[in-house]
Amino acid sequence: MPLYEHVMIARQDLSGTQAEGLVEHFGTVLKDNGGNVVETEYWGLKTMAYKINKNRKGHYAYFRTDAPSAAVQEMERLMRLHEDVMRVMTVKVEAHEEGPSAQMQKRDDRDRGDRGDRGDRGDRGDRGDRGDRGDRGDRGDRGDRR
Fold this sequence. Notes:
By secondary structure, the chain is of the alpha+beta class. 28% of the residues lie in helices and 32% in strands. Helix 1 (16-32) packs antiparallel against helix 2.
């Protein structure tokens, strides 16, 4: 069967458990039509780049499926009709990647406090230990400007 990845955005006024319940509900729809949900991830309440239906935030959920196209089409149709679902995106993939999605890996990095390749912030280059700009030369008399 073909492999798919889905991202769903639900309304911001739902609770986290209600949003996760939507994922379970649509997973059941997929299973009833001969598909299989391989993995689900709840990404949480996130701020969107622009408003959708007067909502500034949304509950993001991600799931990987192994299902026939008819089952995916039925699930998408029901998602688009559901009043709590704002957006759905489905992508057909050749193979599912192992481990957590890139979004969850990003969250894990943030939780550990990993700040990337900033290095030691104590070394400020040739400016000395005071952080001044060094000798800037003669600037002339600046008080006579008009």
